[in-house]
Design a protein that fits this description.
CATH architecture: 3-Layer(aba) Sandwich
Helix content: 40-55%
Structural class: alpha/beta
Radius of gyration: 17 Å
Number of domains: 1
Strand content: 5-15%
CATH topology: Uracil-DNA Glycosylase, subunit E
Length: 229
């Protein structure tokens, strides 16, 4: 299996899906899936449950295709936060535009797909050349500076970081230097960075941890940041 996988260095440098110049970034922990699918998951056209054609849309509407709850929430946030998208139904945006237009960008702190955040095994050790601690150190050294520098270069208006267990890591990557605390509770933290980006830390984007009420609160902060540009 190892010989069929891309080089680890290539995976570390994979920035994400969409344009880094997008208004809204969504940053998660890692992609959900198996290690052997990593090459496929580095290609949005291959990995996405959707293709930009009417036939796939019709199949989805009949229950044959189902997007992840995470992607649904991201579409709802984008269409509610960005004024020019307000008239577009979130399902339509998800189907045809998400991570393919200039408004949304998706990436992760950790580049290797896993079934769960704490997953690990021999195949991972063989691939990264060490245990999980070794992998995390490699990510911190090789990947996080790329994400940090890309954010500082393109200055997205808003960065949503979702995954409460790793808020400290999100903070370390995207909030540095002089920053302003806008909102801070157990379920939602909002900062304005010294590169003028609003960073919003939330629980993972699934309904049982990220309720509609909490989502609407987060959207208010994102909408204000975009309106104040």
């Amino acid at each position: 299996m190892m010989k069929d996988l891309p080089r680890l260095n290539e995976v570390m440098k994979h920035k994400g899906f969409g344009k880094p110049s997008a208004k809204i970034w969504f940053v998660g922990l890692e992609y959900h899936g198996a290690l052997q699918n990593i090459r496929k998951m580095m290609n949005l056209r291959e990995w996405s449950p959707y293709k930009n054609d009417h036939g796939r849309y019709e199949a989805r509407s009949k229950g044959k295709i189902s997007p992840t709850p995470t992607w649904k929430i991201q579409a709802k946030i984008a269409t509610a936060s960005i004024e020019k998208l307000n008239g577009i139904p979130w399902k339509e945006y998800l189907e045809f535009k998400q991570f393919r237009d200039k408004n949304t960008f998706l990436t992760n702190l950790f580049p290797l797909p896993m079934q769960k955040h704490n997953s690990w095994g021999k195949h991972y050790e063989e691939y990264v050349g060490g245990d999980k601690e070794h992998y995390h150190k490699l990510v911190e050294k090789k990947r996080w500076p790329i994400l940090r520098n890309t954010a500082e270069k393109f200055r997205p208006t808003v960065i949503f970081c979702f995954g409460k267990t790793e808020w400290k890591k999100f903070f370390d990557v995207f909030v540095w230097g002089d920053f302003e605390v806008i909102h801070k509770t157990d379920m939602l933290e909002v900062y304005i960075t010294d590169y003028d980006t609003t960073v919003i830390l939330t629980p993972f984007f699934v309904p049982f941890s990220f309720s509609d009420n909490l989502m609407n609160k987060a959207i208010k902060f994102a909408k204000k940041a975009i309106e104040d540009e």
